[in-house]
Design goal:
about 190 residues, mainly alpha
Length: about 190
């Protein structure tokens, strides 16, 4: 049931898609504009959204007539485009900047956004459910630590350090997108 290799793989995929380290500049600017970010609430809500989507996402897809393999292929495209954003330093997906830093802009869409939810369902087509849940929990712990220490991390990593991390995770994410695409495209035909 629990497979350490799967948990590590899923955990790294989610870490790259959530890109909490790459979001430090956004988090810092939100913190400067409103003062305080509720790290605990944002982390818990994001974790609940991800786990709920893990269990209910497939039923939602079935309700609208989409199979998990089609969703996984579509998800691989989204993951691919997210990796392009990370590698090239461009923005393909535009989101409005929130007026306040509450649970809504931090938990959703910053942490549990469309890319993360798509990835979770895509992972469900490939990996064991228990391992995905463990990886989500581990990532939420990392998210909480990063939210709590965002100012410290910004000072230590600097802009060049954050850019290197983004590019490394972008390449990893691109390889994962190709793997998910190739594994699921065969099942469509």
């Amino acid at each position: 049931m629990f497979d350490l290799k799967e948990i590590i793989t899923i955990g790294m995929i989610l870490f790259a898609v959530i890109d909490i380290v790459g979001s430090i500049p956004i988090i810092i600017s939100l913190k400067k504009s409103v003062g305080h970010i509720q790290s605990e609430k944002a982390t818990i809500v994001a974790g609940i959204i991800m786990i709920a989507f893990l269990f209910l996402g497939e039923q939602i897809l079935t309700l609208i007539g989409i199979d998990i393999n089609s969703f996984a292929v579509a998800g691989s495209f989204i993951i691919f485009f997210i990796s392009l954003e990370l590698i090239l330093g461009i923005t393909l997906f535009r989101e409005d900047t929130p007026d306040t830093a509450s649970i809504v802009p931090i938990a959703f869409p910053l942490i549990a956004g469309a890319g993360t939810l798509t990835t979770i369902l895509t992972l469900r087509a490939e990996y064991d459910l228990a391992n995905i849940i463990v990886a989500v929990v581990i990532n939420m712990i990392v998210v909480y630590v990063v939210l709590k220490s965002s100012g410290f991390l910004e000072k230590k990593l600097g802009n060049s350090g954050l850019n290197v991390l983004r590019k490394v995770f972008g390449v990893v994410l691109m390889a994962i997108a190709v793997k998910i695409f190739s594994a699921n495209i065969q099942n469509l035909f």
